[in-house]
Amino acid sequence: MTLAEGPVGLRPIRQTDRRAWRDVRARNADWLRPWDATSPDSLTGVPVTFGAMVRALNTDARAGRLMPFVLTYGERLVGQVTVGGISWGSLRSAHIGYWVDRSVAGRGIVPTAVALATDHCFAVGLHRIEINIRPENAASLRVVEKLGFRPEGMRLRYLHIDHGWRDHLSFALTAEEVPGGLLARWRAAAGRPGG
User: Fold this and answer.
1) Are 182 and 118 in contact (CB under 8 A)?
2) What is the mean pLDDT of residues 11-19?
3) pTM value?
4) H/E element holding 76?
């Protein structure tokens, strides 16, 4: 599945993305470290290879548990958007996580990508999308504000980030809240064509 809005695109992550993905991550290591999820198990010092990460993501995608996308801007890989924690049945919910290259931050790329992913989730039958953000992450808080995600409260010691359990603010949106789609609402709010 490939999703696009102007120069912003989402497509499945591939083994061939290794060099571009690693280059972006290396350039942005210090900028992303305070927001990047880590695993308590990673303290053993055994790094996960890119190939192993892609295989694990794609295995979970085939099982319907997540949707791993690379984020592109003008065909250049600039980040990642992952729809994870997919639950079907009576819940039909998931959460979205993302990161972007600092060199393109502030251009509306992440809100556009999150809107694309959210609309896709609703189109395939999910009902609720959640985004969890560290309270100190002003840039990500601005993303959910721009898109109109509803605040739902604080989750104490919710996610392991930067080698510690960190509190997160939780935001959500249900399909009924955006009957015309989140991308259309984002276009209209941003004064973009097509809205």
Assistant:
1) yes
2) 96
3) 0.93
4) strand 76-87
φ/ψ bin of 75: left (φ > 0), alpha (ψ from -120 to 50), beta (otherwise): left
Judge: domain 3-190, CATH 3.40.50.2300. no
- Nearest 5°: the CA angle 157, 162, 166 is 15
Q: Is 62 helix (H, G, I), strand (E, B) or coil?
A: helix
Cβ partners under 8 Å of residue 71, min gap 6: 8, 9, 10, 77, 78, 79, 80, 81, 98, 100, 109, 110, 113
Cβ neighbors of 182 (< 8 A, separation 6 or more) are 114, 115, 118, 119, 122, 147, 148, 173
Q: Is beta strand 76-87 parallel, antiparallel or unpaired with respect to 93-100?
A: antiparallel
Q: How many CB atoms lie within 10 A of CB 144?
A: 22
DSSP state of 37: B
Beta bridge partners of 97: 82
- Mean pLDDT value across residues 81-102: 97
Contact between 151 and 170 under an 8 Å Cβ cutoff? The reply is yes
d(CA 147, CA 24) in angstroms, rounded, equals 26
CA 43 to each of CA 40, 47, 55, 151, 162: distance values in angstroms, whole numbers, following the listed order: 6, 9, 22, 32, 11
| Residues 125-140, mean pLDDT to the nearest whole number | 97
